[in-house]
Amino acid sequence: MSEETIAAVATPPGEGGIGIVRISGSAAYAIGLSLFRFSRQVLKPKSHRLYYGHVVNPADGRAVDEALVAFMQAPHTYTREDVVEINCHGGIMPLAKILELVLAAGARLAQPGEFTQRAFLNGRIDLAQAEAVIQIIRAKTEQAMELSLAQLQGRLSKQVRAVRQSLLRLLSHLEAAIDFPEHHDVEDLALQELRSGITAALAETETLLQTADQGRIMREGVRTAIIGRPNVGKSSLLNALLGEQRAIVTAVPGTTRDVLEESINLGGVALTIVDTAGIRETADEAEKIGVERAKKALRNADLILYVLDLSAEVDMEDREILASIQEKPCILVGNKTDLVADVQELAGKFAGELPPFPFVGMSLLEGQGLELLEQTIISLIFQGSVYVPQSAMVTTARHKDALKRTSQALEELLAALAAGYAPDLLAIDLHTAVEALGEITGESVAADLTEEIFRNFCVGK
Ligand SMILES: Nc1nc2c(ncn2[C@@H]2O[C@H](COP(=O)(O)OP(=O)(O)OP(=O)(O)O)[C@@H](O)[C@H]2O)c(=O)[nH]1
Ligand SMILES: [Mg+2]
Q: What pLDDT, on a 0 to 100 scale, did the predictor assign at position 445?
């Protein structure tokens, strides 16, 4: 347990019904008791009960604010240390004043995420679970929330730890083979077991890795790029999806130069929509950069809305771009239906000329077709082309990176086994894999990295 007692305002800054000052550490009770005047006599507060009274300034005995205070005894607390939470009025002044008194009574101001960091250091949660806390706070959709909660409850940690345990067992066999080279049968058995054990661990690592893109989509939203030639109505489409006039729309081709990014929530899934510059050959310096950015957005997208002007012909540029995105989920948005006589006929014609993506006719000018487009997006996402829900998912780039290194080390290990390498050389790769997996749950992770993870938290968490 850490020696210093820490304190911070745990509620967001600004005005609110309630504000909370949280104190954690061995001096939490003493500090809380020195500042709190119970409304009736209490000799020793019971743990995890709320007491009504006043926070007073011990210097002059004057009341600072009315408060409800909870004294919570270790180890059944957020940090596993003694915790005191002072619920006062949620204003800037009462909170600042009470925090000041708490600090004067001997607490140190907590750094961002330090309460959760202590929960981690004191062994209540592992690193992946700690990361889930911040994901819950930042979740923007119900599904992201559910996924983060599952991670907090240890679903991912459990799977990772099981693989790591199996590798640790193999490592101990291998080390026995190194220590007693004269027992050849021990070695033979160990090598056989090693091969099947590694193969199984590799398969499980790969399965988890495959969930990584899904996890990112759940957390950050489906990256949706609006792509097309100039003047087809891309910015009009962004505005329609957002329900506000976010992007500039004009009749001049080449209006949008930069990429514009906005988020919406569609059927519980977050979509990050990117409006881009119309793709064409151009001599204009700024537009040229815009076109490059559009192409990049296209490459990074999880889903593409390709907009066509139905009153114009499909040209080479369209064909080229669409050919380059064949393997990604894409919807063809046939815009400006108001300008054409027979949409069905045109759709048929486009279907013959273009890759077989779903086609939605729209008139953004007249506000036609938005609902159908939204339904098409949702069904594409849930049909499994974009998003497949999984029980445990990898949601952060950090976890993905660690799993990649694990799988790489295990592959090298299998190759080394096949080549008949000595046990001590095999042990090196196995160590690498065990270490990489341990980074996810925090068993083996550099102190500065955990610091960095927790400093991304908010103060008071
Ligand atoms: N007739 C008709 N015109 C439309 C429709 N949708 C958009 N427009 C017009 O087409 C022009 C271009 O619209 P934008 O949304 O700016 O097109 P864009 O693809 O973003 O264009 P760039 O940013 O230049 O690439 C504007 O004059 C719009 O009013 C539609 O459904 N029917
Ligand atoms: Mg535009």
A: 82
